[in-house]
Design a protein that fits this description.
2 copies of one chain form a homodimer.
Chain A lengths: L1 H28 L6 H19 L2 H11 L5 H18 L3 H23 L3 H26 L3 H9 L5 H32 L11 H15 L6 E5 L5 E4 L2 E6 L7 H19 L14 H16 L3 H15 L9 H8 L16 H17 L7 H13 L26 H20 L3 H6 L4 H10 L9 H9 L5 H12 L1
Helix pairs in contact in A: 1-2, 1-3, 3-4, 5-6, 6-7, 8-20, 9-10, 9-12, 10-11, 11-16, 12-13, 14-15, 16-20
Amino acid sequence: MSYADLETLGKKLESIEHAIAILSADEATNMPVGGGEKRAESVSFLYGLRHETATAPEIGDWIAKAESEDLSDDQKLAVREFKRVYTNATCLPADFVVRKSQAEIRSEQLWRDLRAKNDWANFAPALEGVVALAREEAQMRAEVLGLKPYDALMEQFDPGNRVADVAPVLEKLKSFLVDFVPEALDAQEQRYARRPAKSVEGPFPIEKQRELGLSMMQALGFDFTHGRLDVSHHPFCGGVPTDVRMTTRYKTEEFLTALMGVLHETGHALYEQGLPKDLSHMAVGQARGMAMHESQSLFVEQQLAHAPQFWQWAMPIVSQHLGENALKGWEIEDVVAEVNKVERGYIRVDADEVTYPLHIIARFELEQALIGGDLEVVDLPEAWDAKMTQYLGLSTIDNPKDGPMQDVHWPAGAFGYFPSYTLGAMLAAQQWQAIEKARPNVLDEIAKGDFSGVNQWRSDNIWSQGSRYSTPDLIKRATGSTLDPDIFIAHLKKRYG
Amino acid sequence: MSYADLETLGKKLESIEHAIAILSADEATNMPVGGGEKRAESVSFLYGLRHETATAPEIGDWIAKAESEDLSDDQKLAVREFKRVYTNATCLPADFVVRKSQAEIRSEQLWRDLRAKNDWANFAPALEGVVALAREEAQMRAEVLGLKPYDALMEQFDPGNRVADVAPVLEKLKSFLVDFVPEALDAQEQRYARRPAKSVEGPFPIEKQRELGLSMMQALGFDFTHGRLDVSHHPFCGGVPTDVRMTTRYKTEEFLTALMGVLHETGHALYEQGLPKDLSHMAVGQARGMAMHESQSLFVEQQLAHAPQFWQWAMPIVSQHLGENALKGWEIEDVVAEVNKVERGYIRVDADEVTYPLHIIARFELEQALIGGDLEVVDLPEAWDAKMTQYLGLSTIDNPKDGPMQDVHWPAGAFGYFPSYTLGAMLAAQQWQAIEKARPNVLDEIAKGDFSGVNQWRSDNIWSQGSRYSTPDLIKRATGSTLDPDIFIAHLKKRYG
């Protein structure tokens, strides 16, 4: 039976991906510096083996035969997703993949060097090469998939997402935010006038912060028999569903940044740990794309851990681990004001819940123009500056380092990825609204540190669904409606208005 | 060029082995319990891939062609070692390998269960099956390699070691030890009468013990840019030469056991870190077998760290990390007496430098008889008891758990491995004697914590040689003579007489 062949192949791929995931997590958390060269050789060999294994020509035949076999509904969905992944993995000629990956590696290395030197002029030609290849790639993907070029790029990260659906949603959000950011800043100023911002007095020993993070992870439902928390320079959530490797980074002078980071990654981890275990070897058993994954991390970070009820439960736990003086003189309102602080800034990764979408929307618009040929790399600094000035009132024209050179995505050839971040924030708000409808007392539950209700809803509606449905279908099945910008807008108004 | 094909293949094998080594180290040190099943699947897939890759039929052709190519002397040695490994890996039919490995896995699992229950009767049939397969294996290996059956088994662990050479050496050592053990025990009793054994008063915090171990590793030459120290239930030295993963296990009530364990594993680690880097992808660049590896760990543990001069340097370091009270009232003689304590016992892994070889020699004699068909499993308890009674004055007849059931080796099908331990101890003593001749002031160097001289000698003569030579050839090239039991005997007399 060809379905059985696909399962055997899936188990092989699962074993290879397991090795890559754990070796990569180990590299970031444990590997001594001199181990890097041989580690890179080993992981690169495994990536090659995975690609070779996942794109073998006979797989196409197996899929075609499996499609005509007598399968259960779940097996049919599994074959459909296997085919989608296989088509996406095989739609580029091998020599193009090599050419592209070499150009991207060179461009990313150059970017690391030149970003530090704020040197746009010498970086632009490399980016031009990457953009040219991305246009070519988008064209080829589009033809195979029967999609528009930019849609074909997004399809890799969030299956089913199309500009025709996403653009109006983000356009509406943009129109709202351009006016709302100044309002939110005013409102914040008035709040601070009544109640000045508090500060914490460290040092906060790393071991104590770690214990605090572990106890919060535990309460949120993280399964420590299937995962652990380590330290790395860039926090991430990696590993495999049966062995999730989460990391954070500590500063001794304050603890909120590390803690919020732990909460964010816990959201990713819960998704991985909640995926259907019997399908872990099949594409249909994997998480549904970047936006949905980000919705799970932002659900915990923004929907749960930015709410006053969360801190009603969490503040005593902070004191328990870091001592009574850690938040001495703070009330719930102070913590909430601290974690919900709004600030205009140049850097996306430092942005808050309110300004972050504008960073994303600017990139979404710019990269569509780059891929569509309506914008050339040489004109990018001006185009970037114009959008930042219009959306956030910040000019970046003299500072490309904090302008179009700030992110690794484009230098590394990732186009169509940026929207996932903000779509994730909106999906999270929409899930929260659905949960509030289903569980009117959910905020009381959270104030008691009881996350079983929100977890059960997310397990039933998101985690256990794996990749059975496209991103738009999954959110519709979960919440009853497609992505609705008004829900996120209402959330922001309520919290920051 | 076929030599180039062998190098390409070697790089592929190195990448696979890298992945296996790091995944295995991670499993023992970091993996949460629920990660085990998928980890086993991944590592087992990689083992299969390694076997398939290392035994492909075209490799035989490449080797044959490479043998007639115009190669450097070092390349010729590399081809010879490649051929040796390939021949050893391909000399058993695939279906036999599967049958054997299934029987061994079942037998080992049964052993874990029944050893705890001290149940020899129910375990014996499984061991009979394993022995039958080992006899068959030895016969097949012997035919391909042109060796005697037991020699063909030893060849896997210590290339070049033959019963004809090893047996007389161990026979001489046995004759000496059977009389010497009581003498050493008497001498020890007299020393204790003059100077009673000291004890330590804990607790010794694990973090402090860890720092002590790290500082000793550093002084001994461990390169922390290419390795690290972790904790595991069973201490080991794993990983790869560019990323050595060493472990230990701490008890808070005393620190000497963990410290001696760290020193032992550091010996293994130095060997791995000192292997020729440019040959890391070739068999000839690997460590030369189990006995030589054990000689490196025992060199550090027994030759260096059992010597008074070592403690002259090390005692202040212990105090520095664990506090002045850690060895309060101890003098160098007390530490030396403690680490050199001789005691008759049932268990090999708990045995000291003097009694350990008798445990090994008993096994060496018994497993030769088992493989040769001169002893059947049903008669093993009596045969074991007879040897233990004769060599150590201890009867195990009523306690198979601490008799022939104590080690995992036979249940797991490893025959021909045991002699490596004692050959390693003898090789270490022989290397020490050669170093003392070459560096008459070496004990003064050690008293100052200067290990550069002993490391340079071992690097030049052992580590950098990789697997260019057989075990007997390597020790002869390094010390000027083949394995000489009188050196080890003289060492024991001097230290324990």
